[in-house]
């Protein structure tokens, strides 16, 4: 994989946990179901067998993808960083023209959680914030038009 996969330690742990679950629990259970369904005879109209084989392919594909993402991971621990500059892993508080504040954590592509305001380092908001520092004004391109923000605080948690 030639593409960088920056990720926090928590994000890497989540990928490993999902891979472990698929390998140790989900896949063996589906294999049992397929084996049972195959033992019933005619497989051409056996829904358990047909669905089970399809599910096995999905699991194997996901396991392959997870393995590649884990192998390509460049782990960056936000708690080991400091400073006023916005970098990967930073938690950034910005303020718009109306004085409304928003806080985002810049994380890897595999860790995006919009409800928790965890955004990808490749997102338009993060790209606008990266390498800026407290007090800088940034323009963020949005579908409904550009917005201007000031960086209020940069933290590393």
Features:
single chain; 157 residues; alpha/beta; five-stranded mixed β-sheet; two-stranded parallel sheet
Description:
With 157 residues, the protein is of the alpha/beta class. It contains three helices and seven strands. The strands form two sheets. The chain has a five-stranded mixed beta sheet. Helix 1 (9-39) runs antiparallel to helix 2. The longest helix is centred in the first third of the chain and has 31 residues, at 9-39. The radius of gyration is 22 Å and the shape is elongated.
Question: What's the topology here?
Answer:
Layout: E1 5-7, H1 9-39, H2 47-71, E2 73-75, E3 91-96, E4 101-107, E5 118-120, H3 124-129, E6 137-140, E7 147-155
Parallel strand pairs: 1-2, 4-5
Antiparallel strand pairs: 3-4, 3-7, 6-7
Elements, N to C (H/E): EHHEEEEHEE
Radius of gyration: 22 Å
Give the CA-CA distance, first to last residue. 29 Å
Q: Report the average pLDDT across residues.
A: 93
Number of helices: 3
Report the oligomer: single chain
Helix percent band: 25-40%
Structural class: alpha/beta
Unreliable parts: none
Strand order of the largest sheet: 5-4-3-7-6
Shape: elongated
Question: Largest beta sheet, briefly?
Answer: 5 strands, mixed
Number of strands: 7
Strand content: 15-25%
């Amino acid at each position: 994989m030639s593409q960088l996969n920056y990720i926090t330690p928590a994000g890497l742990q989540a990928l490993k946990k999902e891979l472990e679950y698929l390998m140790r629990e989900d896949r063996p259970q589906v294999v049992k179901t397929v084996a049972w369904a195959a033992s019933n005879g005619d497989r051409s109209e056996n829904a358990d067998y047909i669905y089970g084989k399809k599910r096995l392919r999905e699991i194997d594909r996901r396991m392959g993808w997870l393995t590649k993402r884990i192998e390509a991971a460049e782990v960056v621990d936000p708690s080991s960083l400091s400073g006023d500059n916005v970098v990967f892993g930073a938690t950034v508080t910005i303020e718009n023209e109306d004085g409304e504040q928003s806080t985002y954590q810049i994380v890897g592509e595999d860790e995006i959680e919009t409800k928790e305001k965890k955004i990808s380092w490749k997102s338009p908001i993060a790209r606008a914030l990266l390498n800026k520092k407290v007090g800088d004004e940034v323009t963020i391109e949005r579908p409904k038009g550009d917005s201007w923000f000031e960086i209020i605080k940069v933290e590393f948690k």
